[in-house]
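Q: Here's a chain of 135 amino acids. Please give me its 3D structure as tokens.
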Amino acid sequence: MKQMVSLKLLLITLILSGTLIGCSNNATQHSYELDYFTLGHSAVFTQRELINSLLEDSTDSEETSPDPLLNSYCDLIDRRTIYVTEENIPQQCNDWAINHKTRSCAKQFHKCVKMCSLRSNDCQPCIGPSKECLE
């Protein structure tokens, strides 16, 4: 009789444990993880293009539209892929809203940039879809 009770207790414990483990892998949880190579590749492209845009003497900049390069840069800072001291973090990154939309758009941008060569302008097509994603 004691064995039967302990067997039932063990069975109930296993079922509850399995249920808890199953519930912990919730399908609605979003994963924004990327490998180090992807983030490093994107960091090189993002920083190069941000520097290029600062060096251009462009007076007609679109301030109202979301900037995928800046979104990528702020995401890379938040992921600690790019180190920036507190006093040198751009104001836009301090105002940057970390949410599902900005994270998923940044992830798509990083993955797109990973597929292109950094020695050419192959990565430019990644900017358009990322801009549309942020709107």
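Q: Can you summarize the key feature?
A: The radius of gyration is 23 Å.
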